Amino acid sequence: xxxxxxxxxxxxxxxxxxxxxxxxxxxxxxxxxxxxxxxxxxxxxxxxxxxxxxxxxxxxxxxxxxxxxxxxxxxxxxxxxxxxxxxxxxxxxxxxxxxxxxxxxxxxxxxxxxxxxxxxxxxxxxxxxxxxxxxxxxxxxxxxxxxxxxxxxxxxxxxxxxxxxxxxxxxxxxxxxxxxxxxxxxxxxxxxxxxxxxxxxxxxxxxxxxxxxxxxxxxxxxxxxxxxxxxxxxxxxxxxxxxxxxxxxxxxxxxxxxxxxxxxxxxxxxxxxxxxxxxxxxxxxxxxxxxxxxxxxxxxxxxxxxxxxxxxxxxxxxxxxxxxxxxxxxxxxxxxxxxxxxxxxxxxxxxxxxxxxxxxxxxxxxxxxxxxxxxxxxxxxxxxxxxxxxxxxxxxxxxxxxxxxxxxxxxxxxxxxxxxxxxxxxxxxxxxxxxxxxxxxxxxxxxxxxxxxxxxxxxxxxxxxxxxxxxxxxxxxxxxxxxxxxxxx
Length: 489
What we know:
Layout: H1 2-23, H2 29-45, H3 89-121, E1 123-127, E2 130-134, E3 142-144, E4 147-150, H4 158-173, H5 176-189, H6 194-213, H7 219-229, E5 240-241, H8 247-254, H9 269-280, E6 291-293, E7 296-299, E8 302-306, E9 310-317, E10 324-331, E11 335-338, E12 341-344, E13 348-349, E14 355-356, H10 369-378, H11 381-384, E15 390-401, E16 407-418, H12 437-451, E17 460-462, E18 465-471, H13 474-477, E19 480-483, E20 486-488
Parallel strand pairs: 2-4, 12-18
Antiparallel strand pairs: 1-2, 3-4, 3-5, 6-7, 7-8, 8-11, 9-10, 11-12, 13-14, 15-16, 15-18, 15-19, 17-18, 19-20
Helix pairs in contact: 1-2, 1-6, 1-9, 2-6, 3-5, 4-6, 5-6, 7-8
């Protein structure tokens, strides 16, 4: 969510700066309205857009599964401690956000109730498709839907009333009320975001420019009337009011005509959109890149510190004669810290990241290598259907969950394949065969997509406090069998 808000903020800020610098003082109001609505929607949606191009990322040197001799394998789901867990800062932020939404909805409901009350209590008359509501209260004229609210017809001359109706009817013809509701809902959801209010105010001003341009009256007379309305009370937030937008700017805009050359600024939206797509979409070109520097890897905005290399002793059994041989392998560095915070696991680590005997975790979360493997295979049936019969090994390891239970890192290196063999072929049973590269790439693209959407689970805890947790790939050491395009266990 944080990255979404940062990207959305960057898009809105760039677009608003461009609007104020190049478009705000021009008189092509319909385009400016489209620009504001479009770029606001761009900020909402673009951070959710996901590139599906060259997204395969092979980790460098930390992903191939190795036997973790000192690890305690926990393949079943383990529930957390029964002790109540104190609320962390993220839960407090969620409560604060919900409270803000509730207050914003209350204020919006209050504005709606005000409009309904003024409509019910006012004297109603028709002017074509428009309803004129005389409220009997001192306020500037305003409109909502196809209703025009005024204090009383007696307060205005025939010429002034005509100006009011032409102005407010333009709001209705241009469907400005839809824009208003759109932004009001945005203010409820993003009540904390200042740029949403900036967009709202800019859009209201453009609405007034459009409505002013429709009034068939000389600028001096109409400008004087606008100044007179500033002395009256304001209107509900769900309406368009004469005195809500800056009067001075509206009077200046009445006499402004943009030149043909200035209309070239309308092409500005194209490069801005391109910049937003390239820089602020979810998982854009740089989003999936892992940058290794020394013993650290930067990935998705997080910095992971790696352990030092370790030697590991493995007992290998020859399936043909049962003889045991000892094999010494080098355990590749694994992530031990994320943004300076320790990454816990089923085993302990010392200051250098070497394995110790005593586990440093109290309770693991509800996601482990077994459940993760099941999640991936259950959602990859379309790709698995294209695999040849045989046993497959997915070299996925070092899956890291953050303090909220979300996957923030994983390593993988290959999908290996071994065909089913008869007893006479047992001597070659440990040798893998080559998988079609195109099919392997399709498999990994699907895997990456799924790893990005792993549902959040209950995080691991130490002394009741959520912590970062490293899942080892024990379940991935065991292959999965594919026959006739389906998984058979």
